[in-house]
Write a structure and sequence with these properties.
Low-confidence stretches: none
Strand content: 35-45%
Shape: elongated
Mean pLDDT: 89
Number of domains: 2
Distance between the termini: 35 Å
Structural class: alpha+beta
CATH class of the largest domain: Mainly Beta
Length: 219
């Protein structure tokens, strides 16, 4: 278990603020133990909550060209057939995974291959489960062509709290299944678009782990 690079600076600054806050409470409220202890408790809890958000556990990926792995830790909130209109322009099965603030927020490649499409879109910050969030919110869209020439498209979508999407891949890059490709801060959603003949192996409400949970099998 390590701390993700996206959180190291923030956690260092927050640690200084926390220590300073504890010192101030201990100095100014030494005789008011309820206020002192309550304040110190709140500062420590806030720091621990932010710390757990940026945790980056080691993931051992079992690569399989016919499997589509979950790109995010979270919960499956939707599985539906839809028209992908940004790049693929065909009918697809869409699997949507919601990431709460308590989930690990490292995003991992659902399949290995070559990045054939990458686009960043600024936008709104509707709650991540809003029906229009996938087309109106800030988002990053990536497509990867697998070794069997099947293209899988997936989309990082910002939410009401997630105001910053980080993506580390670019068009033309070769990636491995389960490899880290991005990070979304403070809760959001990832949509995956698989071919209609793919067999979806999860159900709405299922919990997923990035790089571990098989969400679909290619025909």
């Amino acid at each position: 278990m390590t701390i993700h690079r996206e959180g190291r600076t923030l956690l260092f600054v927050l640690l200084i603020i926390t220590v300073a806050g504890i010192w101030a409470l201990d100095y100014f409220f030494a005789q008011q133990l309820v206020v002192r202890n309550t304040g110190i408790g709140i500062l420590i809890i806030v720091y621990l909550l932010v710390l757990q958000f940026f945790r980056n556990p080691t993931v051992h990926v079992k690569k399989n060209a016919s499997h589509i792995l979950a790109p995010a830790d979270g919960k499956v909130v939707a599985i539906e057939e839809t028209e992908e209109t940004e790049y693929l322009h065909d009918r697809r099965k869409q699997i949507s995974i919601f990431m709460s603030p308590v989930n690990v927020h490292v995003n991992r490649m659902p399949a290995g291959g070559e990045i054939t499409y990458f686009a960043y879109h600024p936008g709104k910050y509707l709650v991540a489960w809003h029906p229009k969030s996938s087309t109106e919110n800030e988002r990053t869209t990536i497509a990867v062509k697998t070794h069997n020439q099947t293209e899988i498209l997936f989309r990082q979508i910002a939410g009401a709290l997630a105001r910053r999407i980080k993506c580390y891949v670019q068009k033309g890059q070769h990636v491995e299944q389960g490899e880290e490709f991005g990070f979304i801060k403070f809760g959001s959603r990832v949509d995956v678009f698989v071919p209609l003949d793919a067999i979806v192996t999860v159900n709405p409400g299922d919990k997923t782990r990035a790089g571990k949970t098989i969400i679909a099998r290619l025909a």
